[in-house]
């Protein structure tokens, strides 16, 4: 029952955010809310216990794409970590580079919206920077 009420709390928060943004938002059976923005920015919000995990697809990336991209990714990852703006992660099974960030304070709707906006802006900027390395 506690899991159910926690999930309902997440549903209430995401619905409230959706209302403020003018979008009907809800978590699915996998505790995820999937967003497609501007037809090429794909972001998922995953409800996990007391946090939300944001996952943003940056680019499809071959594991054998060359050293220069991996060096660039590590430099960017250091900057992201230093500014508490997320982490780049390579998902091997999907051959995809993701931006991941946790929202740990779910008490203030406007703060959550601000973090979502910052995340999507960061995701778009990284996508533009790294696009030339994308697997075609």
TrEMBL record:
<dbReference type="InterPro" id="IPR044530">
    <property type="entry name" value="SicP"/>
</dbReference>
<protein>
    <recommendedName>
        <fullName>Tir chaperone</fullName>
    </recommendedName>
</protein>
<dbReference type="Pfam" id="PF05932">
    <property type="entry name" value="CesT"/>
</dbReference>
<dbReference type="InterPro" id="IPR010261">
    <property type="entry name" value="Tir_chaperone"/>
</dbReference>
<dbReference type="GO" id="GO:0030254">
    <property type="term" value="P:protein secretion by the type III secretion system"/>
</dbReference>
<comment type="similarity">
    <text>Belongs to the CesT/SycH chaperone family.</text>
</comment>
């Amino acid at each position: 029952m506690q899991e159910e009420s926690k999930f309902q709390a997440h549903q209430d928060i995401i619905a409230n955010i959706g209302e403020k943004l003018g979008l009907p938002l809800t978590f699915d059976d996998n505790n995820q809310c999937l967003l497609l923005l501007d037809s090429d920015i794909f972001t998922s919000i995953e409800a996990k216990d007391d946090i939300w995990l944001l996952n943003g697809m940056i680019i499809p990336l071959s594991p054998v794409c060359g050293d220069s991209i991996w060096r660039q990714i590590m430099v960017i990852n250091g900057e992201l970590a230093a500014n508490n703006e997320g982490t780049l992660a390579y998902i091997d099974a999907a051959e995809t580079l993701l931006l991941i960030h946790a929202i740990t304070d779910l008490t203030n709707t406007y703060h959550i919206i601000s973090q979502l906006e910052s995340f999507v802006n960061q995701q778009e900027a990284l996508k533009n920077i790294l696009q030339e390395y994308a697997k075609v």
